[in-house]
Amino acid sequence: LLSLAQAENTEEAKIIYDQTLVLIEKSIHIAEILENKARVVILYLRKGDVYVQINQMREGQRMYREALNMVRKLDLPNLWHSAFESMIGVLFAIGSSEKAMEQVCEGLQFALRRLSDGGFSLFLSLFRYTNSILEQETKRPSLGWITDELEGFFCQIELLHEKIHEHVDAIGFAKFSLYQEEYLRLEPQSVWH
User: How far apart are the first and last CA of the chain?
Assistant: First the structure.
């Protein structure tokens, strides 16, 4: 397929996107036949990415939700980050900030239940991602939604602080140091808590 950068016009780009979606769908079918669940999840994420690129956010959200549901059921730690962050990103993109923050809290809860099994990496990833969003959002004049949603976010951080001592060996000093840096970066936003 031609790259989109080479597409001469929007009609050509639409054809490329349509072909890409068909190829992804065929690949999903093959991965399902081969029972390669991780590959199916990756392909759902890529299909969601394509839909988001062509501004079909609801379809992108549907693909990300499917990938996220599979990741939860199948316990695929290598895909936790991508699935949660894709879903959260599309929710913010469509203006569902409250739902996005609910999804963040759900992801943090999911991570807390699996701290020693890779969950801390997910927690750190979501914490960083959310911290970046909060840095931008706290600069805006209307903070009504953010102040309501931060309570759940900070509750998850408090739970991590209560549980962390049990999992320090599994997490490792390097990852914990990254968390500490991110926690300090959160400080300006924490005035809302």
Answer: 50
pLDDT tens-place string over residues 164-192: 888 888 888 888 888 888 888 876 555 54
**Residue 118 falls in which region: left (phi positive, over 0), alpha (psi -120 to 50) or beta:** left
Cβ-proximal residues to 79 (8 Å cutoff; 6+ apart), any chain: 38, 41, 42, 45, 67, 71
Type of residue found at 153:
F
Confirm if 123 and 111 have CB atoms less than 8 A apart.
yes
CA 23 to chain centroid: 24
pLDDT tens digits for range 64-92? 999 999 999 998 889 998 999 999 999 98
Q: Determine the Cα–Cα distance for residues 141 and 128; give it in Å rounded to an integer.
A: 23
Kindly list the distances between the CA atom of residue 125 and the CA atoms of 7, 24, 130, in Å, as whole numbers in the listed order: 34, 27, 9
Q: Which amino acid is at 134?
A: L
**What is the value of pTM for the model shown?**
0.80
Q: Are 84 and 70 in contact (CB under 8 A)?
A: no
118: closest CA among 63, 157, 77? 77
